[in-house]
Amino acid sequence: MQDQKQAVKRVTGAFALIDSLRRHGVQHIFGYPGGSNLPIYDEIYRAEQAGEIKHYLVRHEQGAAHAADGYARSTGKVGVCLATSGPGATNLVTGLATAYLDSVPVVAITGQVPRSALGTDAFQEIDIFGITLPIVKHSYLVREPSELPRIVAEAFHLASSGRPGPVLIDIPKDVGNAQIDYIPVEPGSVRRVGYRPTVRGNPRQINQALQLISQATKPLLYVGGGAIMAGAHAEIAELSERFQIPVTSTLMGKGAFDENHPLSLGMLGMHGTAYANFAVSECDLLIAVGVRFDDRVAGTGDKFAHSAKVIHIDIDPAEVGKNRTTDVPIVGDVRQVLGDMLQRSYQLGTEIKPEQTQEWHSRLQQLYNQYPLTIPHPENGLSPQEVIVELSHQCPDAFYTTDVGQHQMWAAQFVKNGPRRWMTSGGLGTMGYGLPAAVGVKVAHPDDTVICISGDGSFQMNMQELGTIAQYGIGVKVIILNNGWLGMVRQWQHMFYNDRYEATNLEDGTPEFARLADVYGIEAMTVRLRSDLPKAIAKALSHNGPMILDVRVTRDEDCYPMVAPGHDNSDMMGLSS
Question: Which segment of the chain is annotated as a signal peptide (predicted)?
Answer without folding.
Answer: none
